[in-house]
Amino acid sequence: MSQAAARVFIVDDDERVRSALARLLRASGYHVESFESPDAFLDRADLAGTPACLVLDLQMPGMNGLDVQRNLKQLLPIVFLTGRGDVSTSVEAMKGGALDFLPKPVCESLLLAAIDRALERACIEFAKRNEAAELQERVNHLTRREREVMVLVLTGRLNKQVASDLGAAEKTIKIHRARVMEKMKARSIVELVRLAEKAGLYRADDK
C-alpha cells in the first residue's frame, strides 16, 4: 500500500498544538486523525486498516508517551514531541523503537521529513503483516496429512519415498502433493520452500 493512503495519528493534550499540527499535516497532503489523550487514541483509533504512524507528545497527564509506546509494542512507527525531554528519556524512547525525538516547538521541515520516514517504514511493515496473515491463511487450509506430505516433499523426497514414510499409496501422495501446491499457491517446489520458510514451517538447513 502506498504512502498516499497512509494516516498520521496525532496525540497531544494541548489543543493548540494538536490543531496546529493537524493543519500543517493536512496542508502537506497527509490523512490526519488527532486525539486529545492516549486513552482516546487507544480506544478509538483503527490501527489495523491502513499503514499509519504516530506523532506523540511525551509528557501528558496520566498515561505518558512512553506508556503509549509500551502499549503499542512497536505496532506503529512513533515520532515523539516534547518540550521537556531529557537524554535518559530520549534514549528509552529510541530503545523502544521510536523513529525520531523532536523538541517543541518543532521545526516543520524536520517534522515532515520524520513523518515521511515513519510512513515509509509503516508501509513496509504493513505489507509484511498482510503477507504473513495471507500466508498463514493458506497454511490453515491444509489438512494434517497435507502438512505431513509438504514437510517431506520439502526435504527432497520423491513421491514413492513419501508414500513409504507415511504408509500410503503413491497415487494418494500425488493427490496430496497437488493439493498442497494448489492451496499454498506455489508454482514450483522452489516457491513452496520459500513460502514454507516464511511461514516458519521449514528451514533449509534442517534438511
UniProtKB/TrEMBL annotation:
PROSITE patterns the UniProt entry points to: HTH_LUXR_2, RESPONSE_REGULATORY
Entry keyword annotation includes Methyltransferase: no
UniProtKB keywords: DNA-binding, Phosphoprotein, Transcription, Transcription regulation
TM region(s), chain numbering: none
Listed CDD domains: LuxR_C_like
A single GO molecular function term of this UniProt record: DNA binding
Residue intervals of the Response regulatory domain: 7-119
Gene Ontology terms describing biological process: phosphorelay signal transduction system; regulation of DNA-templated transcription
Family annotation (Pfam families): GerE (PF00196), Response_reg (PF00072)
Modified residue annotations for 4-aspartylphosphate: D57
Domain HTH luxR-type: 135-200
SUPFAM superfamilies hit by this protein: C-terminal effector domain of the bipartite response regulators (SSF46894), CheY-like (SSF52172)
Top-rank lineage group of the source organism: Bacteria
Keyword Transit peptide in record: no
Protein name from the UniProt record: Response regulator protein TodT
Organism of this sequence: Paraburkholderia fynbosensis
Gene from which the chain derives: todT_2
